Structure formats: structure tokens, C-alpha cells
């Protein structure tokens, strides 16, 4: 991304929904009421971070083995036009967030993106997502 391009809006988090049994939920509420956590979300985020830390070596090894881009990667119209001019078809593999600029046309995306594999979130227009649906792994 060049410095004169508009940066994509950064997203701090994605909302997920989980179903918990009443006993688990009650135990979470008990720990919150006893002051161990500020709220349910705090406990759940802490539990997830602990599990991710437990498996950090596996994550690092898998990121390297699968050649994943770690973090956030933005694909601008200029990026895709440059790939098209070079005759390159992109195989997008991201652990985190991948975004495709809003001014990218469906035709340009189809011409330049061979596949998309995102472990996390893909931000693109609904038209781009629909056009690339068969290429999203």
C-alpha cells in the first residue's frame, strides 16, 4: 500500500456467538460476582488467550509451514492492477484479516485472485465475496 492511499478501517475485534450450558454460565457468573473477572467477556477472552498461549508453538509452526501472512493485509486496487500487469494470480493466505479495497471491481478481482484462505476475517464488498465464492477456501 502506498502512503498516499486511504488506509482501510481497522477492526479491533469480530463478534462471535457461543452457546454455553447453564452450569458453565452459572460458574462464569459466580467468578464475575466474586471479582475474578470484570464481566463474562473478560473471562472468555482470558480463557481464549490462555489456550492460544498454550498452543503458540503449533500456531507459529503452522503459519510458517502454510506460508500464511500473519496480521492484517490490505489489497488495494493498485496492488491488483500491478499483479494483473505482471501476469500474476494471487493466492491470498492470511491468518488475521484480509481486506480488499472497495474500489476493486469484480472483473479485476476475478482476473487476479486465484484463491483466498483467511483464518480470521475477510473484509470485501458483498459483490467481490459473491464473485470469488468458489475461490474462497
Automatic annotation (TrEMBL):
A Pfam family that the UniProt record links to this protein: RHH_8
Gene Ontology biological process: regulation of DNA-templated transcription
Alphabetical list of PANTHER family matching this protein: BLL4998 PROTEIN (PTHR36215)
Name by which UniProt lists this protein: CopG family transcriptional regulator
Organism expressing this protein natively: Massilia litorea
Amino acid at each position: 500500500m502506498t502512503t498516499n492511499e486511504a488506509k482501510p478501517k481497522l477492526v479491533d475485534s469480530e463478534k462471535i456467538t457461543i452457546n454455553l450450558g447453564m452450569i458453565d454460565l452459572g460458574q462464569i457468573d459466580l467468578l464475575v460476582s466474586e471479582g475474578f473477572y470484570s464481566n463474562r467477556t473478560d473471562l472468555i477472552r482470558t480463557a481464549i488467550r490462555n489456550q492460544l498461549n498454550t498452543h503458540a508453538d503449533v500456531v507459529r509452526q503452522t503459519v510458517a509451514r502454510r506460508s500464511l501472512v500473519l496480521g492484517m493485509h490490505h489489497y488495494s486496487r493498485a496492488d491488483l492492477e500491478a499483479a494483473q500487469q505482471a501476469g500474476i494470480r494471487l493466492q491470498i493466505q492470511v491468518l488475521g484479516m484480509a481486506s480488499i479495497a472497495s474500489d476493486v471491481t469484480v472483473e479485476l478481482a476475478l482476473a487476479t485472485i486465484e484463491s483466498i484462505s483467511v483464518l480470521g476475517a475477510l473484509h470485501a464488498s458483498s459483490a467481490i465475496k459473491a464473485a470469488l465464492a468458489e475461490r474462497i477456501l
